[in-house]
From TrEMBL:
It comes from the Eukaryota. InterPro entries: Self-incomp_S1. GO terms for biological process: rejection of self pollen. It is found in: Secreted. Residues 1-20 form the signal peptide. This is S-protein homolog. Belongs to the plant self-incompatibility (S1) protein family. Keywords: Secreted, Self-incompatibility, Signal. One of its GO terms (cellular component) is extracellular region. The keyword Magnesium does not apply. Pfam families: Self-incomp_S1.
Length: 138
């Protein structure tokens, strides 16, 4: 590469990084996707809410998904929590939490979750697996 080509690449990378920084500061839209991975032919009933929004009750057949979009609050923090029900079990989980999903190194724009009988697991772009697993809320 010539010196000028190196300059162009460096400037391009710099502008690109700056733009993605600005996007994450101003909080563009995010999507949460939830997939029923309970197995055993179980249906998953879920009900997600935030402080201000009630996203209603959804019923997911095995292996099917539902998603919602939102813009994280510019000031303050955004939190969506869901109740998950199947075969007599009921669990709560914070499906989107700015502290976990936006501020950390592991932030997601498409936050994709598999729900199985042990726990919710988020897709990890660095491993390409659903291996970011968390306990249900206490
Ligand atoms: C749920 O998914 C996690 C991550 O893939 C896995 O380690 C765990 O064994 C699964 N549990 C069940 C009951 O399938």
């Amino acid at each position: 590469m010539t010196k000028w080509e190196v300059y162009v690449v460096v400037i391009f990378l710099f502008v690109h990084l700056a733009a993605s920084r600005v996007e994450s500061i101003f909080g563009e839209g995010r999507t949460v996707k939830i997939t029923n991975k309970l197995g055993g032919g179980l249906k998953l009933t879920l009900h997600c809410k935030s402080k201000d929004d009630d996203l209603g009750v959804q019923t997911l057949a095995p292996d099917s998904s539902w998603s919602f979009k939102f813009k994280p609050a510019f000031f303050g923090t955004t939190l969506f929590f869901c109740n998950f029900n199947w075969g007599g079990e009921s669990h709560w989980f914070d499906i989107y939490d700015d502290d976990r999903d936006r501020v950390s190194d592991n932030q997601c724009y498409l936050c994709s979750w598999n729900i199985n009988r042990s726990y919710p697991c988020r897709f990890d772009e660095s491993t390409n697996r659903f291996d970011l697993c968390y306990d249900w809320n206490k």
